[in-house]
Design brief:
The complex is a heterotrimer of chains A (about 260), B (about 450) and C (about 450).
Chain A: H1 2-5, H2 7-11, E1 14-25, E2 28-39, E3 43-47, H3 54-61, E4 69-74, E5 77-78, E6 86-89, H4 103-108, H5 112-115, H6 123-135, H7 151-165, E7 169-172, H8 181-196, E8 200-204, H9 211-214, E9 217-221, E10 225-230, H10 231-234, H11 237-244, H12 249-262
Parallel strand pairs in A: 3-8, 3-9, 6-7, 7-8
Antiparallel strand pairs in A: 1-2, 1-4, 4-5, 9-10
Helix pairs in contact in A: 6-7, 7-8
Chain B: H1 5-30, H2 34-55, H3 61-85, H4 89-111, H5 119-124, E1 134-137, E2 140-143, H6 144-162, H7 164-172, H8 174-179, H9 184-225, H10 229-257, H11 265-283, H12 289-317, H13 329-334, H14 344-356, E3 360-363, E4 366-369, H15 371-394, H16 399-409, H17 415-424
Antiparallel strand pairs in B: 1-2, 3-4
Helix pairs in contact in B: 1-2, 1-6, 1-9, 1-10, 2-3, 2-4, 2-9, 3-4, 3-9, 6-9, 9-10, 9-11, 10-11, 12-14, 12-15, 15-16
Chain C: H1 3-10, H2 15-40, H3 44-67, H4 75-99, H5 104-127, H6 135-142, H7 150-169, H8 171-179, H9 181-186, H10 191-213, H11 218-229, H12 236-258, H13 266-284, H14 290-318, H15 325-336, H16 340-352, E1 356-358, E2 364-366, H17 368-390, H18 392-395, H19 412-421, H20 438-443
Helix pairs in contact in C: 1-12, 2-7, 2-10, 2-11, 2-12, 3-4, 3-5, 3-10, 3-11, 4-5, 4-10, 6-10, 7-10, 10-11, 11-12, 11-13, 12-13, 14-17, 17-19
Classes of the chains: A alpha/beta (about 260), B mainly alpha (about 450), C mainly alpha (about 450).
Chain lengths: ~260, ~450, ~450
Amino acid sequence: MSVDTSAPATTSDTALRVADLTIAYQRKPVLWDVDLVVPAGVVAGIVGPNGAGKSTLIKAVLDLVPHASGLVEVFGKPYRKQRSLVGYVPQRESVDWDYPISALELVEMGLYRKIGWLKPVTRAYRSQALAALEEVGMADFANRQISRLSGGQQQRIFLARALVQDASVYFMDEPFAGVDAATEKAIMAILLRLRQRQKTVFVVHHDLETVREYFDYLIMLNMRVVAAGAVADVFTSDNLRRTYGGRLTLLDRAVDAIGGIRQ
Amino acid sequence: MIWTPLDTWIVAAAAIAGAACALSGSFLVLRKMSMMGDAISHAVLPGIAVAFILTASRASGALFIGAALVGILTAVLVQIIRQYGRVDHGASMGVVFTVLFAIGLILIEQAAGQVDIHPEHVLFGSVELVPLYTIRVLGANLPRGVVVVTIALVANLVVFAALFKEFRLATFDPELATTLGVNAKLMHYLLMTLVAITTVASFEVVGSILVVAMLVVPGATAHLLTRRLLPFLTVAVVVAIAAAVLGHLAAIGIPPLFGFEDTSTAGSMAVVLGGLFFVAFLFAPEHGVVAKAFARIGLRVSILTQDVLGLLARVTEGTASTSTPRTTTDTLREYRRSPFRRRRSGLQLGLTLLRLRGLVRRRDGRYALTGAGRDAAAGILRTHRLWERFFFDEAGVDLSELHHAADYLEHYTDADLQGALSEELLRPATDPRGRRIPE
Amino acid sequence: MNVERLLRTLLLSDYNTRVVVFGTVALGIAGGVIGVFLLLRRRALLADAVSHAALPGVAIAFLVLVALGQSGRNLPVLMIGALVSGLIGMGCVIVVNRYTRLSEDAALGIVLSVFFGFGVALLGIIQKMRGAAAAGLDSFIYGKTASMIRSDALLIGVVAVVVLIGTTLLFKELRLITFDPDFAAGDGWPVGTLDVTLMALVVIVTVIGLQSVGIILVIALLIIPPAAARFWTESLRLMAVISGLIGALGGYLGTAISGMAPRLPAGAVIVSVMGAAFTVSFLFGSERGLVRVLLDSLALRRRVLNQNLLRALYECEETGCTDSADGQIHYLSTARGWSAPQLRRWIRRATRQGLLTTGENGCWDFTDHGRREATRVTRNHRLWEIYLLEHADVAAAHVDQGADLIEHVLGDALVAELEDVLADRDALPASPHSLLPANEARTS
C-alpha cells in the first residue's frame, strides 16, 4: 500500500511550499514572512535558538495554529487537501503519559484515519501496528502501559505511530529531545529508512553538532527563515551567527511593543 | 421599598463578610486556585454539621475549629489523591468536595429533627435573620452574625498585614520565596485555613455556596483592573462592599417592580457581583473588551496616517526644490509599493485626518506636507530606513524583502527604540539602498 | 435502621423501588461511562460549573410555566430550561477564558457562583409566590429520587442507552482526542466537533441527573466512578466498563440505603457510596492502588538489597575472606557500612530464598542457584560501571531510565547492548575500582 499513497511524491518534486506565512500568538508575531520551497525526498533539519518558532512553523504548516497570513502547499496542492499525505510526531511532553493506553494501542492511532469513522480496529490493522513497533525495536513492549516506558522508548512508539500513517511527508517535533543513545540510534535508522523510501522528513532539532550527520537539508530559523538549503551550502558560520547571533535584542523589543499595543 | 434599621444590619453583615472573603479570595484568584475555594466551601459542610450537633448552637468556637480542620483536611486530601493516586487536580478536588458535601448533607438532614438547623440556611444563608439574634459585646447589643464576620475580617486583616511581604512573594514568585526561606507549603495551608474560617463565618450570611461568589468574583474583577497587590486587594474589598449594598437593594427593590415579593439577598449579591465583573470585563481601562477594541481602531488609524505620511514624504523626496512639492492622489496610489493601490478610500481618509491635524495641505486637488508634516514624515522615514539597515546588517535579510519587514515594524517603534536602533547601528547615514536617513 | 426495608429495596420487591433503582442505576452507568472521557480530557470541573449554571434555567422555566397558567412541575420543560442555561454558563466560561487574563479556574468559579446566585434569587421569588407550589424545585438542589416516576426513569434509560451507543461507536475517536488532540487535528480529525459532541453528552447526563442527585452533587456521578476505575486498570475499555459498574453500584446501593431510614437524601447517599468505592479503589486498586504501589516499591527495595548483598558476598569471596561467619559479617559491614544485625536479617532472608547456605566452616556460601545469581548481578554491575566510566559522555543520556537504581532493573535487551558496546570484556570483568582487601577489613 505504500506504493500508491507515496505516488504523488514522484509526480512533483516540491514536497512543501510555504509562502508569506506569518504567525502571531496573542497578536504578537512569532514567525513572520516565511517563504520555503523544500524538495521531495530530503531529511530536513529545522534549527534555531529557543523561541525561534521552530515548533510553531510545524504547527502552522499542519494548521494547528491560526495563520495571520500565508499559504502552505504539499506536493503542489493546499495542505487541507493533502492531509492524508502528512504524518506528525508531536513533542513528547505534549501528551499525558499516564493515559490508560498500551504502546500498541497508541501506535494504532496512526491507522485510525485509514480505518475510518466509527469502525473498530481489526486484527489486520493491529498486526500492522505491531510490525511498526517491531521496526522501532519495541515489539516486546506492545502491551505495556505507556507511562511504564522510558523516555526514549516513548519517543520510539511515537515514531512507530507516525510510520503506520504511511505518509509522504513527516513532521517531527524534537524527536531527539531527552532520549538515550540507543533511541537516538534507532531514530537515526528510521530517518534513513524513510529517506530510502523517498519520504520527506522535517525534524525540529536542537543539537548543532549532529546536523551534518543527520540531515541533508537544513532550515535555519529565527522568527524568520535565515537560510534554507542543502546542509553543505547553508550550514556556515555566517548563517549560524545570523541565526543564533545575540544582536537581535532590538527586534525582541519591537515585538514586545507590538504585543503590548495590540493585546 | 422600606429601609429599616434591620436592613442596615443586613447590609453591614453582608459587607463585612464580603470584605473578609474578598481578601482571602484575592489570593486564591492570584494563585490560580479559585476552585479550591469552591471545594473548601462545599467541604466544610460536615465540619459545620458535626459542630452543630455536638454543641447544639450556631455560635461557638467549636464551629471555627471544625471548619479550620475540615479546610486543611480538604487541602490535604486533594493533595494526597493527586500525588499518590495520580488523579488530575480538578478531578481530585471534585472527588473530595462532593463526598464531604454529601456526608455533611446527610448529617444535617439527620440532625434537623433535633437541632435548629436547615440545609437551606447552610447552603443559601439567612442574612435576613441576622438582626434577630443579638449578643452583648462591650456593653452593646450587636447581631451575632455581624460579630462573627467581623472576627473573620479582623483575622484576615491581621494575617495579611503581618505576612504581606511573604504572601506577595509566595504568590508572585514562589521559587524566589523558597530560596528566601519562605515556606511555600506553610503559606498554602495557612491560606487554606483562612479560607475555611472565612467561609464558615460567612455561611450564615451568604450560605456555603454563594460564598464562592464572594471569594472569587471580587478578586477576579480586581484582576481585570490592576496587577499590583495593594490596589488589587483594595478594589476587591470595594467591589465586595458595593455588591452587599446593591445586592440588598436589588433583593428588596427589584422583585416588587414585577409584582413579586422580595427575594434572597445572598442570591442578589452574587448576581450584582456578576454584574460588576461584567462591567469590568467590558470597560476595564486597559484590558477591557471596549478598551481593546478602541486600541485596535486607534492603532489602525495611526498605521493608516503613518503610511500616508511616509508615502507623501517618499513621493516628494526626490523632487526637493525651493517650492513645496505637491502631488495628486493618483500619483500617490501609483507610486512604487504604494499600500493604497487598491485602497482609494483609505488614502482619502488618511489624507483627511492628516489635514485635520495640520500635517498636510491641499490646494487645487494636490497635496503637500506642512512644516510640521515634514518633521513627522522625516521621523517615519528615519525609523523605516533604520529598520531596513538593521535587517540588512544584522539579520541578513534580502534587499527585496527589506521593505515588508520594516514597514511592519515602523508603526510600533517609539522614540526610545528609534534612538536605541540608531545607536546600535552606529548612527548610519544611509539605508541599504544608499538613500539618506533623515535626522 | 430497618433491615427488612433494605432487603425489600435491594430485592426490588415493589414497583416504585424498581422504577427508582432503574433510574439511578441507568444514571450511574451513563455518568460513569461518559465521565471517563471527561476526566481524561481534564475537564472535570467544567461539568461542575455547568450543573450549577443550570439552576436559573430551572427557575425561569418554572416561572414561565406558571405565567402560562400551567403547573410548574413539568419535568421535561424544567430540564430544557436547565439545559439552556447550563449551555449559556459553559459559553460564559469560554468567553471569560478567551477574552481575559484570568485562569480557567477563576472563570469556572465566577460562572458557577454567579449563575447559582441568580438561581437562588429566582427561587427566593418563587417561594414567596402565592399559590405556586415550589416544592418540586427543591429536588433540583438536593436531589430527590423518591419523586422519580416511570417516565423520568425511562428518559434516563434512553439517555444512558444513547451514551453507551455513542461512546461505543466513537470509542476510537474519543480516545484519540482525549489523548492527543494535536495529533488528531494533524491527522485530519474534526477535533472541535468531537469535543463538542463529548461535552454535549456530558451536559445531557448532567441535566438528567439534576433531579435525582441534585445540582451540587451531580458532577460526582461523572468524576468519582472514572477516578476510582482508573486504579483498577491500564486499559481504557476496561476503565469505561468498571466506571460504569461503579456508577451502577452507587446508584443501586445508594437508593437502597436511603430507603432504610427517613431523612436520608438519596443523592447524598449515592455519592457517599461512590466515595466509599473510590476510597477502596484508591487503597486497594489492583493497578495503581496505594497498597499495590507501596508493595511494589517494597519489593523493588528488597530486590535491590538482595542483589547488593549477593554482590558484596561475591566480592568478599574474591578478596578471600571466607574463613569465618564473623569475618564475613565484619568485612561486609566495613566495606558497605551495613550494621551487623541488618546483615544477619538479610542473610537469613536470602537463605530462606535458597540463595545462600551455611558452608563447612560455619560461614555462608552460595547455593548453585545463588552463585549464578550473584555472578549475574556482579557482572551487570561491573559492565554498567565500566560503561559509565568509559562512555561518560553518552551515558549521561541514560539518566532518564531511573538514576542509580538502574543496574537492578537492567532488561536483557540493555545488558545485551552493554555487552555489545563493551564487546572485548571477559565473561566477568574485574571490578574497575579496587575492592577493600580482606586483611584491611580485619585490622580496621
